[in-house]
Amino acid sequence: MFRKRSFHLLSLLLGAIALTLLPSTAFAQGGADVTEKSTLLTWIPFLPLMGAIVILLMPKRLEGLYKQVALIASAIPLVLAIQMALGFNPDIVASGAAGTAPQLQDYTVYGLQYVHHVAWIPSLGVEYFVGVDGISVVMVVLSTLISFIAILASYLVNKPVNAEKGYLSGIAKQQKGYYCLILMLASGMMGVFVAIDLFLFYVFWEVMLLPMYFLIGIWGGPRKEYAAIKFFLYTLAGSLAMLVAFIFIYYNSAPLGGATAFPMVNGETTEHTFNIMFLSFSSTTGWGSFFTQNLAWILLFVGFAIKVPMFPFHTWLPDAHVEAPTPISVILAGVLLKMGTYGMLRFNWQMLPEATLHYSTMVAVFGLIGILWGAYCAMAQTDFKRLIAYSSVSHMGFVLLGMGSLTSEGINGAVFQMFSHGLVTGMLFLLVGFIYDRAHHRNLDGFGGIAKVVPIYTGFIGLAFMASLGLPGLSGFIGEVMVFIGAFQRHPIITVFAVTSVIITAGYMLWTAQRIFLGPLNEKYADLSDMNWREWATLVPLGIPVIVFGVYPGPILDMFSGALNTLNQLVLTTAVVN
Amino acid sequence: MFEIGLTHFLVLTSILFCLGFLTVVTRKNAIGILLGVELILNAATINFIAFSHYVDSPTAEGFIGGHIFAIFVITMAAAEAAVSLAIVMGVYNYYKTIEVDKVAVMRD
Amino acid sequence: MQTAPTDVSYLFLLAVVPFAGALLNGLFGYKVQNKHGKRPIHLIAIAAAATTFVISVKAFLDVKAGGPIEQNLWPWFNLGEGSHMKVDLAFRVDQLTSVMLLIVSGVGSLIHVFSTGYMQDEKPYWRYFAWLNLFMGMMLILITGDSFLLMFVGWEGVGLASYLLIGYYYEELPKAQAGMKAFLVNRVGDFAFVVGMAMIFWAAVDAAQATNTAGSILRFADLSAMFQNDAFVTAFLAKESMGVPVIHLGCILLFIGATGKSAQIPLYVWLPDAMAGPTPVSALIHAATMVTAGVYMIVRLSFLFSLSTVAMTVIAVIGCLTALFAATIGFFQTDIKRVLAYSTVSQLGYMFLGVGVGAFGAGIFHLMTHAFFKACLFLGSGSIIYAMHHRQDMKDMGGLRKILPVTFWTFFISTLAIAGIPGLSGFFSKDEILWRAYDTNNLLIPGEVLWVVGVIAAACTAFYMFRLVFQVFFNEPRADEHTLEHAHEHKAMTIPLVVLAVLAIGGGYLGLPAWTGAPNLLDNWMEPVTEQAKLNTTWKTDIALGHAGAKKEIKSLDEKIAKLDMTTEQGQSQSGYLIWRKAKLEKQITAKPKSGIAAFHSHAGEFVLMGGSVLLALLAIFAAWRLYGRSYRDPDNERALFGEKLHNLLLNKYFVDEIYSKFVIKPAMALMRATYWLDKTIVDGLVNLSALIMKVCAWIIGSLDGRIVDGLVNGVASGCRVIAGRVRTIQTGRVQNYILAAVVGTTVLILVTFIV
Question: Which residues does chain A have within 8 Å of residue C153's beta carbon, measured at their own beta carbons?
């Protein structure tokens, strides 16, 4: 017993040393200036992958160490991401109006920082190109944080948390496979947010898909096969649409501003390019007919809308969530859904502004339907997890509404909502998992009055509920109110209907709270144990930003407001020009 | 007036070949078949010698080509007889017969 | 003219100190209480509340000395160049806020003290005080926040605190449900508030862009300054949303927000249920402070509301109707707290009537006096309930006059005040509102109608309040002996009662009516805040008196303008304001009375009308005494006396809850079920259907594949097989056959060669 513990401590110690050393080496290569090239953004997505390989190579004898390795492999990217965000200069925003010649001398023209750009498949114009701008930097931080929390949460369920109370759940089987896959998943999603090359983006996007399938399909609940295959096929259909659009865009790309070909990092040129930034700022007017742009827009939109998930493509979400193990739900809701809206901003908005303007009302309408539909469906649930899943549909509707408003307030609110929703839903799914670990069911009507026996748990869930229903002073409010204010300027009637969701959301959240926590105590749960320190450890890193950024959203807003305002202007002005 | 020419040899070997051929085709006994083969070989050997004698120019450098072939064929026939007889012995040991009709495992 | 604000650095403490108290008690209270008892808990809480009172006093003195004070913490919403949304997290105390601050922190501190007695037997004592402090912090944010958004933080925050405190006894399901109902009904109001805010923001952004007006739109101080720019106001008034002028629609939406928080028709239904919370909470949140937030908001935005006659009319009418409606429901309630709850709704209706007719000062005046006497009444009821071992029904009371003397006297004084008996605070404030309602020239309907309804409601108030006093304090005690033996008053409870009773008497002298000739201190104090609104309002008495005051002011303004040194920058900026004000006043002079009898629109008229309303109130008190003064009447008795139908209708609150349940809740639930059914069967059904179609297609194609495509392949194979079956017979395995074939073949070949 003692030996095992000292073993674990040693490994954690080694991890801590690695944590402090690696970032500094990564930065040493990059130099102090964020506009210089650096390998930092390569470290972030590839460290989890390296962790996965290490776990794969470890003998079965060291099974107890898998989770430590996984935790370290996800903690380092988190530290790196936070350092990156602290060093990020929000004043550097894309200055390129449409029609400038593509160039590679100065990445800041495209608003990019921490660029790592090397040749990959020059014959096709494919490059390994990663970098962050204001929109993605927040998402990178979010995805690293959520991955870390998710692995920490799997950590818990690997062990009988409280043996004498007799609950044990989740990932006790096939730990090697589990941690490898979850690290691969983390790699994929971090990569999606840093990729600046269409091809690379697609690779990361697909890398993330398969582990998810296995994670749901192997470690999931009773209907895991159905949920996993539904998730996989649905998402695959989306990524196929996306792939077609990518190829379509690739063959339609043509340089402007007097250039005849796109430069590549190895000094060669290419006729067509996968470089997102070139496509955004150099080809927007080189698109041929409006029809082609529309076709690409719709294909991309459908691809991303499935991921968001936007009504009516949302039905995979409740099934996937209900069957997925807790940490996977956290990742799914916390990061994967944001990839859809991030993709829309990065591709539809940035690359196809004309069509975006054309369809903005439609986006807002789908946002509205999602908001209300998700909220009403959530209210009808008796399964706690399914309820939270539907509330995600509703909350992602706000993001779409804000994006569809094409106003500075709306689009900023949308991205803030993405960030905030990641934190809040992460908390909610963790909390649902904790109660499931104890009670072995999630039926809302099967509890009653347990606030008395689990006051701390109730406190945390109260915080999460309040943040979710948009209580001012918490982060959920910031995004919501900006979306409302922004959307009203362009779509007043849609917004009025959307705002009714504040009533419905409060309705199902409080009703849920009442059914589980209030009223006379259900004697069956009289000796339920309250949260242990490890559960605290997963919730606190999410709960603190929820409060802090609710009161002081400045750091987050500053990070992306410049980039988003530029993007919004691009959509509005480019379309007017043509 | 009656000089033995190439034609006589050819007729002889033709008869010999036909006899050998008939032996091979009609006999069921493996040894018999082998004997028929020997007859065919000998017919061919005689042909070689005859052609060597009558057709090849004696002044030409390779005039002994037919003889050499004859020696080869004789040697080969001896070796063949040895191997064949050994096979026949083996077949006999296994099947207790040397009737080729009965030894038909490879047919189907 | 509102002077420029002075920067101070202590305002954030108003929010931080109560939050610190709440955090301390919330996080460590449980352990502290187990270890050291309840004393440290309430010491922390009371210290926090008292500190806010001290800060409020300091803020008041600072405002008195040098005008408004402000503290800018940090940029809160700042979206950079592309957006008009620039809001700092800023606190600001001006004349209006300082009054609110004193009321909230003063009454709040007293109620903290009271709670130490009332709540002493509660186990989760720490939780109660943590939440009470949370409420204080949120309420102070609400009134000090200098932007729509920060106000909204407080607005929702007090809603949260109210939810938590109503559900304090959460183990009883109805009480937990009452909390939820309060929160949800408030959310309906918030919906309107958010839409109204977004609408005004949109219109103001467009107007500001069109007229090149600078300023942070969501901040009250900036917005009010922008509304002093005539070009901006013209542009703003021209904006329409969904076919309705924004100024009307936006103000009405904000008012709907206020009806949620301040329990007005149609969103008052939560307040009576909110009585499920501990009684001190009812006193603090549901009588004195939180529910007045709507009134405060309208006065804060008076510069905006006063521009919209439509919204003002709606507010006045709703307020007036609520006053009467709630008062009649109060007639036959038997739960002592419910009577007070409906009385609160009714009194809030008065406040809205006041601000609706344009008398913003009078609205705040009534808010203040109501805070005193209603807090006193609620705490008195708390004292009674405490003595009666937490029984609230009047049937268990009676004859408590002797047993609870302090409670009785303070309760009685407050009842006199609420009934509008001359000399007490309620009289002055209510009279001011009624007179202004009569005198107003700002509405689309004649103010006289509002006055009549208001006076009837006042009489009703006098009736049911005295019914309450007689039922509870007079006649024979009806409680069981055990309860009576132990019934006593707690010192921590009587002191706040006495303080509040004194205020209930004296508070009225801050706003003496005009006919007395004495200055209206409160109105004058608030002048800088309400002046903009005042320039938009006209009064029939002023018109009848030939606008003497306005003309006099125009003259003095002329002199001031003449005196200004126009060469200096300061002079120019001042002259702008003076000229604007003069123009406004000149416009006022041209106003014509919309209705009314000229004779009553004078100070004498005010006196006569007041006398009439007092007389009516006295008659109502007399009636209450005749009916209840000498014997207790139980509900059956009352039913016989007043007729079954009326009694039933009023006792059941006009069946409004039932109507809401039938026409709002049930359809919403049905919609919810329908949506989920559609989601499950149609939307997901389509997905599963497409999967099914895929499967069917796969099966069809699979079988086609087996028959045709694969059949072709197999066909070739089996063809070969058939042919081979024949051909293979050639292969006999007999060497002789082969040799024969070889020889025959060779022979044939040779023959063919020769022949060809």
Answer: 472-473, 477
Q: Give dist(CA A113, CA A122) in Å, integer.
A: 23
User: Which ranges of A469-519 does DSSP label H, i.e. alpha helix?
Assistant: 475-490, 492-499, 501-517
How many CB atoms within 10 Å of residue C116? 22
Q: What are the angstrom distances between the C-alpha of C622 and each of A265, C400, C615?
A: 96, 21, 10
Provide the sign of the torsion angle of the four alpha carbons B67, B73, B76, B77, taken in this order: negative
Domain boundary residue, one of C553, C569, C590: C590
Same domain? For C389 and C438 the reply is yes
Kindly report the nearest CA distance between residue C526 and chain A, in angstroms. Answer: 29
**Rounded to a whole number, what is the distance in angstroms from the first to the last CA of chain C?**
132
Statement to judge: residues C582 and C493 lie in one domain: no
B96 near C CB under 8 A: no
Quote the domain boundaries for residue C558.
539-590
| Residue among A66, A45, A320 nearest A184 (CA) | A45
10 Å CB burial of residue A261 (0-12, 13-18, 19+) is middle
Q: How many helices (H) and strands (E) does chain B have?
A: 3, 0
Asked if A408 reaches chain C (Cβ–Cβ under 8 Å), the answer is yes
Q: What is the largest CA-CA distance in chain B?
A: 60
Chains that touch B (3 or more CB pairs under 8 A): C
**Type of residue numbered A294:** N
Dig out the tokens for A437 from the structure. 């670990």
A500 in contact with C, Cβ within 8 Å: yes
Determine contact, residues A443/A515, Cβ cutoff 8 Å: no
Same domain, C96 and C56: yes
Same-domain pairing of C585 and C471: no
Residue A293: alpha-carbon gap to chain centroid = 27
Instruction: State the pLDDT at residue A29.
Output: 47
Rounded alpha-carbon distances, angstroms, from residue C507 to C131, C372, C435: 29, 8, 19
Q: Which residue has the tokens 């908390």?
A: A427
C465 and C550 housed in the same domain? no
Kindly tell me the burial class for residue C701, based on how many C-beta atoms sit within 10 Å of its own C-beta (0-12, 13-18, 19 or more): exposed
Contact B101 C740 (CB under 8 A): no
Mean pLDDT is lowest, of A276-290, A415-429, B32-46, C687-701, for A276-290
Same domain, C453 and C581: no
What is the spatial distance between Cα C223 and Cα C216, in angstroms, rounded to a whole number?
7
Which CATH number fits the domain B6-95, given the four candidates 2.30.30.100, 2.30.110.10, 1.10.540.10, 1.10.287.3510?
1.10.287.3510
In a domain, C418, yes or no: yes
Task: Tell me whether residues C734 and B100 touch, CB distance under 8 A.
Answer: yes
Nearest chain C residue (CA) to B101:
C734
Tens digits of residue pLDDT in A249-277: 888 877 776 777 888 888 888 888 888 88
What distance in Å separates the CA atoms of residue C279 and residue C407, rounded to the nearest whole number?
A: 14
Q: How far apart are the first and last CA of chain A?
A: 72
User: How far apart are the CA of B24 and the nearest CA of chain C, in angstroms?
Assistant: 6
Q: Does C650 reside within a domain?
A: no
Q: Which residues of chain C make contact with B27, given a CB cutoff of 8 A? A: 736
Say whether residue A485 is in contact with chain C using an 8 A CB cutoff.
yes
> C195, A495: Cβ pair inside 8 Å?
yes
Q: Cα–Cα distance between A573 and A578 in angstroms, integer? A: 9
Same domain, C488 and C551: no
pLDDT in tens, C173-194: 888 889 899 999 999 999 999 9
Domains identified in chain C, total number: 3
The answer to whether the beta carbons of residues A281 and A202 sit under 8 Å apart is no
C59-76, pLDDT tens digit by residue? 999 998 888 899 988 888
Write down the ipTM of this complex: 0.87
Nearest to C739 among B24, B101, B106 (CB): B24
